[in-house]
Task: inverse folding
DNA sequence: AAGTGGTCTAGACCACCCC
DNA sequence: GGGTGGTCTAGACCACTTC
C-alpha cells in the first residue's frame, strides 16, 4: 500500500522505514534538505514535499530554520479530565516543563467576551505560557481570566497548574467545561513561540470553564503541535470524574 | 497581523479577503493555479504554497485534479452524542447524504482486534461509507462490527444510521463510548474516496462503542476533511445524555 | 562564516477530469 | 483534446541559526 511509485513515495518510504525501524530516534535531526536531495538525486522542492507529507502523517516535525526532527510518541490528552498538565505528562513517563511567555491585564476583546458570554467586555488577565515535553515546545496556551474573580493571581507562581491555584487560592472547582477542537493554522505569535513557521498546522482547543456555581470563570486557547498529541475521551470515565467533584 | 510582507503573504491576503468578504462563495471554485500565477505575476509553485497555506487555515479545500474550492462553514460534531449523522447535519441546516463504498466480512486484523480488545481475532463485518454535506464528500467511515453480534445486518439498508439499526434490530444501546482524535494523513483508500490527494491532512477519529452490558460491540474509524468540522464537547451535556439512556 | 530552512523563478511532463 | 492539478528539474537569494 505504498501508493504509486513516484519519486515522492520512494523518498517517503525510505525515511519512514528509518523512523519506524528505529534507525532514527525521537527528536533526532534528519539530514539537511540539501544533503537529502543529493542522496536521492533530486531537488530540494521534491525533498521538501516528501518531508511535508511525513510531517502531515505526524512522523516528523520541523523547527523553523533549524531542521527536521523525528516526532516522539504522541501524548494522550483528555481535555475533560481535570488532571494537571505536569501530572498527566508524568503519568506517561515523560518530562513536562512550563514557561510564562507574557502576562497582561486588558479589556476583553470581542472574541474573548463572546467566548466568556459577557456582553460587558470585562477586564481580563491574559496569561500566555509555553509547555514543553521532553524539552520540546509542544503547546502554547493563552488563559483568559475574568480579573475581578482572581485578585492578585498575577503575583503567584504561574508555571504550575492554574486549576490548582483556582482551587487553593480562590476555592473554585471546575464543575463543567466545554471545548472545541479545531485543526487550523498557527497564528503568528503562536508560531513564533512554538518555533514553527507561520501558517503551519496546529490543533487548536478552545475551552470554557465553569466553577461550582455554574459561572464561567475563564477560557483557554490551546495550540498543540499536531504530531504531539492524541485527544482521548471516555464518556464513562468523564462522568465518574465529573460527578466525583 | 499579516506577517512579513512576502509575495506569499500578499497572495494569501488577497484570496482570504475575497473569501471572508463574500466575493467567493462556499464551494465555489477558485481560478486555476495557472491563471492565478499569471494574475499575481508569479510561478505555480508560489501559488500552490499560498493555496496550501489557506487550506491549512481551513479556508479552502481541494478536489484532486479538479481544483481549489471555498470551504463552507464547519459542522459542529460531538462524538459522544448519540445523535445520528443525518439528524446532526439537519439540525445545523445542512443537507446530509450517505453512500456505501463497500462491505466485506473478514477475520479481524491485529489492528482491529486490538481496538476491540479481542485476542481471538473474531470475524468482523467491515462497512465502509462515505458521508456528504451539501453534496461534498467530507467523511469516510469504516465500521467494524463483531459479526456474531450482528447476524444479517448486511442485508439491511446501510445508508442510514447504524446506531439506529443496532437498537431496532438487535436491542443494543450504547452505554459508553471511548474515542481518540488524531490529526494525521489520509491513507490511500480514504484519500481516493474523499477525492483528496494521498497523504493530505485529515482528522481521524477512532471510536469504540459498548452496549448496555459494557460489551464492546463495534469500533469505527472516521476520517474527516479537516476544514469541514469542529469537535465540540460539553462535559455537562454529555453526562445528562449518557445517563438519560 | 558557513550552513540551515523559507521563499521564489521559469520552465517541464504526466495522470486524470470534463467536454 | 484541452485544461486541471500532481510531480519534478535546476537553479537563485534571503533570514536566521550555529559555530
Result:
Amino acid at each position: 500500500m505504498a501508493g504509486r511509485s513516484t519519486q515522492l513515495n520512494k523518498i517517503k518510504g525510505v525515511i519512514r522505514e528509518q523512523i519506524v525501524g528505529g534507525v532514527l530516534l525521537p527528536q533526532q535531526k534528519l539530514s539537511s534538505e540539501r544533503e537529502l536531495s543529493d542522496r536521492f538525486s533530486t531537488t530540494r522542492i521534491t525533498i521538501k514535499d516528501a518531508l511535508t507529507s511525513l510531517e502531515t502523517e505526524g512522523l516528523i516535525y520541523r523547527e523553523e530554520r533549524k531542521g527536521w526532527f523525528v516526532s516522539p510518541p504522541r501524548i494522550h490528552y483528555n481535555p475533560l479530565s481535570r488532571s494537571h498538565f505536569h501530572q498527566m505528562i508524568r503519568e506517561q513517563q515523560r518530562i513536562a516543563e512550563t514557561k510564562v511567555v507574557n502576562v497582561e491585564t486588558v479589556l476583553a476583546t470581542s472574541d474573548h467576551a463572546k467566548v466568556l458570554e459577557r456582553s460587558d467586555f470585562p477586564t481580563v488577565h491574559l496569561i500566555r505560557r509555553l509547555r514543553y515535553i521532553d524539552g520540546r515546545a509542544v503547546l502554547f496556551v493563552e488563559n483568559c481570566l475574568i480579573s475581578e474573580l482572581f485578585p492578585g493571581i498575577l503575583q503567584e507562581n504561574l508555571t504550575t497548574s492554574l486549576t490548582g491555584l483556582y482551587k487553593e487560592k480562590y476555592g473554585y472547582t471546575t464543575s463543567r467545561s466545554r471545548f472545541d477542537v479545531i485543526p487550523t493554522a498557527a497564528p503568528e505569535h503562536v508560531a513564533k513561540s512554538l518555533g514553527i513557521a507561520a501558517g503551519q498546522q496546529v490543533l487548536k482547543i478552545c475551552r470554557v470553564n465553569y466553577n461550582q456555581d455554574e459561572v464561567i470563570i475563564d477560557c483557554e486557547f490551546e495550540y498543540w503541535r499536531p504530531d504531539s498529541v492524541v485527544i482521548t475521551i471516555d464518556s464513562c470515565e468523564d462522568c465518574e470524574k465529573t460527578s466525583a467533584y
Q: What stands out?
A: The first strand of chain A starts at residue 60 and ends at 63.
